[in-house]
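Hello Y.,

Per our agreement to keep a running log of every chain we model this quarter, I'm adding this entry. I've kept the format consistent with earlier entries: sequence first, then predicted structure.
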Amino acid sequence: MCRGFAPRRWKQSSASLFHRRVTRGGASVECREWATSGVLGRGDSTCCLTGATLDIHSETSLFQQALAVSQNKARRMSNESLSSEGPPMIEARSLDFFYGPKQALFEVSLAIPARKVTALIGPSGCGKSTFLRSINRMNDLIPGRRLRGHILVDGINIYDPRVDVVELRKRVGMVFQKSNPFPRSIYENVAYGPRLAGVSTRQVLDQTVESSLRRSALWDEVKDRLKESALALSGGQQQRLCIARALATNPEILLMDEPASALDPASTSHIEDLIFELKANYTIVIVTHNMQQAARVSDLTAFFFQGRLIEMGETASLFTRPREKQTEDYITGRFG
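Predicted structure for the entry above:
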């Protein structure tokens, strides 16, 4: 076991969400007031900010007004700069990544702070999922892959040959775009990781399963169905089960690759609410194509384009005052 990769146990805490209804231009939209980037409506397709329903270039658009609410909230909540919060939990330094002869990432350098939600955005094929999978070395499974540069997790270079990859993946959990529960019972899905790590005491497994399902906001829905097949759950429940399975090994970091892209609005709402609650204890990195989702759930946003990191900053600032023209063009829908 490489020194520094023993999983840490964070004290569980709860968080509450505050909502209010605002009316703009005859439309009623529910706005989050809790998070730095709390932005838009929930569970109602009429509240989505798409070109079909809103003019995002209009000065009176809901998009700009909601982001203004987010920006004002960020100012009130951010009394200290990110640089004063200590060393980053994840740091990339001059990262290049290749699939055979094709280069997918170019000189990516960024720092992700602990217990924040960081969104990676950009058009398809821009390298954001490649970067995400590099954080727990999932790309190691791809033949011909090659990497230059460094990724540090809590100050340790995870590509050092002495690093135990199994221990790394206990510490850095991952939730994929498509929910992938095992064809086993709900209980066995969550207990799989601890069993693999050598836990065999029934009482410990019971406690782990209940704790993980509670943290994923699924316990009340399945506590009487633990012996039933996980495949009988709805799509949204299956995705929360996969989150519970990732939490069962007590990771410090949770990677999410478009976790709500295949879900209905109600299930998406559950996942986003869960992300808000989990960030009190976990560092979360999420890949999303949904600009409104990035604005709603993240504290920081990084914009990738053609394998390069174009811009990274606080979500409210990046969405309202992007420094780069490419960033502005992407978030306003001019391309991508």
